[in-house]
Amino acid sequence: MSARQIEIKSALDDVRAELKPGVELVVVTKNFPISDLEILYSLGERQYGENRENELSPKAETLPKDINWHFQGTIQSNKLRAIVSVASYIHSLDELRHASKISELALEMGKKQSCFIQVNLDPEELVKQESNRSGIRAEEFKAFSESLLKLAGVEIVGVMGVAPLNEDPRPGFETLRNLSQELLKVAPNAGFISSGMSGDYRIAMEYGATHIRLGSSILGPRRVGE
Fold first, then answer.
1. What angle do CA 200, 205, 210 make, to 5 degrees?
2. Does the residue 216 lie in any domain?
3. Which of 5, 44, 143, 185 is most buried, with most CB under 10 Å away?
């Protein structure tokens, strides 16, 4: 094994040892070269997360077809056709106009697109300061989820959230868990919770995370430009 293979395997083994039963690891591969993804593949990983379509599409074209690609970045309308054609899951759905377009494209491609509803977990005072943070507010969740359930080409599989920066993640993860319970009342198969990254995934699992999204814990510092 090369030094890089040993490095990735060691980190991956450490994370796998901590996973609770039923938790899916999504390795966030944005800004990492295809060679790292090939190592992950050789180690049995099939769930990869990307934030930008311009990385997602070339990697998906190059790597084996049994990989599940998780798109978790900001959605741009002009990139949606490419994203829907490749992504097994979209984690970052927070606008109805995007959902409608996703549904239309998915039906055209003969599929249903699995999506998570992204919730903004920031406290109110942070939302006012960081108006560009993605996700719908908790108070909008019921109406938004009900609208999505009417779209024939979209399958809502659960909720996603990113804990606030430099804040205790627990209140946010608790909110996400509560919203997941609300969603299950109207969508009994939408029980996934995508939360937790390298700094807080252990806490996320305590609050019911079914999918954790880890990059630096496994692959180290970004190897390609941000």
1. 115
2. no
3. 5
With respect to residue 90, please indicate whether it lies within any of the assigned structural domains: no
pLDDT tens string, the chain, 226 residues long: the values are 899 999 999 999 999 999 999 999 999 999 999 999 999 999 999 999 999 999 999 999 999 999 999 999 999 999 999 999 999 999 999 999 999 999 999 999 999 999 999 999 998 766 556 556 789 999 999 999 999 999 999 999 999 999 998 899 999 999 999 999 999 999 999 999 999 999 999 999 999 999 999 999 999 987 654 3
Total domains present in the chain: 1
Residue matched to tokens 């005072």:
125
Distances (CA, A) of 125 to 51, 102, 158: 26, 32, 26
> What one-character-per-residue DSSP string does 107-161 give?
HHTT--EEEEEEEE-S-HHHHHH-TT--SB-GGGHHHHHHHHTT-TTEEEEEEEE
Please classify residue 150 by burial: count the beta carbons closer than 10 Å to its beta carbon, then call 0-12 exposed, 13-18 middle and 19+ buried.
exposed
Residue 38 domain-assigned? Answer: yes
pLDDT at position 127 is: 56
Nearest to 37 by CA among 221, 175, 218, 186: 218
User: Is residue 54 one of the residues assigned to a domain?
Assistant: yes
76, two tokens: 């741009």
Separation between Cα atoms, residue 33 and residue 175, nearest integer Å: 35
